[in-house]
Amino acid sequence: MSDTPTRMLLIDDDPEYTFLMREMLTAAWDAPFHLQCADRLSNGLKQLTMGDADVILLDLLLPDSQGLDTFVQVHAQVPDTPIIVLSNLKDEELATKAIQKGAQDYLLKGQTDVNDLRRAIRHAIGRKRAKATPPKAALRRNAAPTSAV
Length: 149
What we know:
alpha/beta, Rossmann fold, five-stranded parallel sheet, two-stranded antiparallel sheet
């Protein structure tokens, strides 16, 4: 693992869940990380304008935004940042729709353990990095031909 901290943004309005996520990340993450928290979508979007995040953990039901529009607003602002949706069991269908719109994964609140959290974050970041890096074969095909002198 790199010594560069993984930058995570948690957008969730429940202080108890925010505390739980911080504790789970401390137990799950075996490398340095920096967790920023926002209790409203507007605060989260503001934090994203001030700095990058390697991954966003996003509750879709916030005081200032509800439902799929919450994801759409964040994704529109940072389309290259992986977003993991945090969902209650009752809105699992909503989380699935967010996946169809581009979210990397979703986690069910109250049913996620440290291993699920670690896996979801690592895979989300890895998939986004792989998507951003063209395969070596494509790079070779697009390389300018060299001529012999």
